[in-house]
Amino acid sequence: MPITVEKNETLFHLKNSSVSYVIEILHNKYITHRYWGSVLSSYHGSNEIQMIDRGFATNPIPTLRDFSLNSLPLEYSTQGNGDHRIAGYQIRLENGTNVTDFSYVDYQVIQGKPKLTGLPATFGNQQDVTTLELTLEDAISQLKMILSYHLFENLPVITRTVRFENQSQQSVFLENTASLMIDLPSQQFDLITLDGSHTNEAGITRTPIRSGIQKIESSRGTSSPQHQPFMALTAPETTEFSGEVRAFHLIYSGNFSAQVEAEQYGSSRVVIGIHEGTFEWQLNPQETFQTPEAVLVYSETGLNAMSQTFHQLYQNHLAPTYFKEKERPILLNTWEANYFDLNEASLDKLANAAAEMGIELFVLDDGWFGKRQDDTSSLGDWTTDLTKLPHGIEGLAEKIRQKGMEFGLWFEPEMISKNSYLYDLHPDWALQVPHYPMTEGRRQFVLDLSRIDVQDYLIDVLSSYLDSGRISYIKWDMNRHLTEVASQLLTSVQQKEVSHRYVLGLYRILESLTTKYPHCLFENCSSGGGRFDPGMMHYMAQTWTSDNTDALSRTLIQYGYSFLYPPIMMGAHVSQVPNHQVGRITSLETRGHIAMSGNLGYELDFTQLDLNEKQEIHSQISFYKQMRPLFQFGQFFRLQMPNTFFASSWLFLNEDEAIIIYFNGLARPSVPVQYLPLHYLDESSDYVNQATGETFSGSELNKAGLTIPRIKEDFKTLLFHFKKKGLTEYKPYKIQLNMDFIRLFYKLRPLYLLSL
């Protein structure tokens, strides 16, 4: 049984084949943390808690001078009655006090995993997950608190949530409701976070933890590009390939905080949840409040193993079920080809070129609706601009489908332009504070998604387009953070609820749409990675990783995001050079290899390509289609973390074959000879290099590695493709097309089109 209950029902051991997590009830009241790490065959308390009579320590049991909450390893705690470390929760009663006194009452073991009302969460059946619920009560305030632990049977994963129930006859105010708190018995950790900015997301920061509190957060209304709602504590010697990792991730898309406190007596407290500074919730009598879900991942074999766990969990137990094993299409997005300057004729020409290259999905980006000539107007007016598209979206979509491609459409549903019919009709629908000016961002305001009428409007608008059956993909953009966060429909004491209610409103919209249209592929976008979090991934199977499409920048961004998300969840496009974000020039081959390392797409004007570029892109698309199962569903391992010169490498692997992509970054003189060990191949098998026909054992490739040739070129990529010996082999991926045939085709094509 994955959860055993021992010691007169005071000890709970959550255990599968790879991880153990132990909780003990002390003095029939306090929930203490005893162990989390590599699996234990049994637990009998050899690491007993050392009780010491310490100065300045208060004693909740007066006769026990050596018992203090200020040093007890707890699973959940608050301030006000002796624990002065960072709090897991904070509650204010109607009389203004914020002291509570919760005591353990009971437990329940459940096969399976109950859903969270109104919130995204991981899922699993009775064979996948076992749930432990610990119930605590405060007899004075008549509040109940339920700590939920969900153990995944086949993964080193435990997820946690907290539920508050008000059983009194008075309202209480929740001022802080962390999803997770845990006290770890060590301070010998490095702290890893993913930090950055717009167009520079997911940079890896690693520092030893120091005495005191270290914190990352977002108060921007979204999870933000500045900080991923993630932190990991590792042993100082941990690498990609070895060492312990304890990782934490919040399944939430709004304001959050994640903190670790290295406290005075040598332990480390981790707390993660909704940002306590931008949150409050009026919990009325008989009402319940549910926190978002926090994910805990343990690895004893390095960061790659941590990532493998996150990848499997999110692909199989979080993302929309329909897309779990469904290949993603290769798309062309119109943005960098057209920007706002589009019309049906130019789009038709671009679509013809895309179809000839083998593109499978044609995506119409911004500029198709209202009076949208630039970013100063029309958000909220989701009616087709018939001067640009005289046959409407349905007419254009049908044309695209007749060319053998699916059709996708861009929306930015959460925004409203001041210059719009919708704003003229409903100015109160925008977030705003009475008597104060409304702050514009990108010349737009934010709709108040805490309002049911706004939610219903957006559900109806999106449904009116999806009902046609001609749209198979929606790019859902969100291009600014929240300001003047207030709602005209809530009372004065509820205004600090708006940030969370906004997120709940967004989730209601997404739940409605993805349930009604389960086969539509929604791509999550917030100016790229501004809201790339597991909460959004529950509804949208992939995310536009970053607005920065430069190949060098993308190696760093995609490397960082791969800590948590598999490549199939990352949109990656080949764009024009000089790159529109940084002005850098990289080869088409390099741009292709980096984009293949996510969901391959293109964002350039196919009608302006020369014959050599057409040949190269056709070759890339053909190779990616052939290798798509490996790129999208194979295991992904990082082989070389980006160094001073930005060199990095990674591996795609399944049971039959492997692809290694090496990126040299900046060329430099006097480079030492480099050998790249592959680490993860099957050591009992031989592998054939598909470019040379040479055969090597898996153990040799893992340990001796590949020789990286001398490269005298900036931003060069190398692709190595190996197949297990005995399987059908095929030629290198560059398809040599007959150039005379191509020239003849393009010469005769106008006559052919006229004959249609």
General description of the model:
With 756 residues, the protein is an alpha+beta fold. It has two domains: 315 residues, Beta-galactosidase, Chain A, domain 5, CATH 2.70.98; 224 residues, Aldolase class I (TIM Barrel, Alpha-Beta Barrel), CATH 3.20.20. Helix content is 20%, strand content 30%. The protein is built from 13 helices and 38 strands. Strands 6, 7, 8, 9, 11, 12, 14, 15, 19 and 20 form a ten-stranded antiparallel sheet that branches. Strands 21-22-23-26-27-28-29-30 form an eight-stranded parallel barrel, surrounded by four helices. A hairpin with a 4-residue loop joins strand 1 and strand 2. The longest helix is centred in the last third of the chain and has 23 residues. The radius of gyration is 28 Å and the shape is globular. It starts with a strand and ends with a helix. The C terminus is likely disordered.
Structural class: alpha+beta
The main β sheet shows up as: 10 strands, antiparallel
Which ranges are low-confidence, i.e. pLDDT below 50, for 5 or more consecutive residues?
733-756
CATH architecture of the largest domain: Distorted Sandwich
- Kindly provide the name of the CATH class of the largest domain: Mainly Beta
When the domains are counted, the total is 2
Rg value = 28 Å
Query: CATH topology of the largest domain, anyone?
Result: Beta-galactosidase, Chain A, domain 5
Strand portion, in percent? 25-35%
CATH superfamily of the largest domain, by name, is alpha-galactosidase from lactobacil brevis
Specify the overall morphology: globular
Q: Report the total helices.
A: 13
**Could you tell me the mean pLDDT?**
95
Total number of β-strand segments?
Answer: 38
- Percentage of residues assigned to helices: 10-25%
Distance between the termini: 68 Å
